[in-house]
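Input/output pair, single chain:
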Amino acid sequence: KTVADLNLCPKRLPRDVRTRWNLTFDMINIALKYKTALTSFISDPDNGLTRFALSSTEWAILENVRDVLQDATLFCSRDSATLASVIPAMDKINKLLAAAVLKKDKTNVMFTAPVKTALLAAKKTLNCYYAATDNSRVYRIAMSTYLASKFYFLLF
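Output:
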């Protein structure tokens, strides 16, 4: 009823799957689009869900998380992803995470403390993976092949 009153199409929220972070983005994005309907439904005492109601701060945190995941989803969903693009991608993500934590980006979006903490944890995890590429034979082969194709035209 609430969804129809708000002229929204009835929709199921996607379930979160731990190993598929892009589903987390989809779930949060849809929840934010249906925020009014969800809030109305959850706050109705007849539904017995009032303990799950989100505060305005928690909704703001969800908006922050959605913005971060949206950039990551768009970046990782491109068709041009290759093993040789791992380090440049990691460098870009590292810069984006640092800018987001320090609020040095063009959007001037101020992230909440929990989101900043999560971004710092993501940055730390990313740095662990970055260090692991130094010992990867497969990555070295991919990079040498990639660089050889890039510099071939300069040499010949």
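The CA atoms of residues 7 and 56 lie 23 Å apart. The mean pLDDT is 79.
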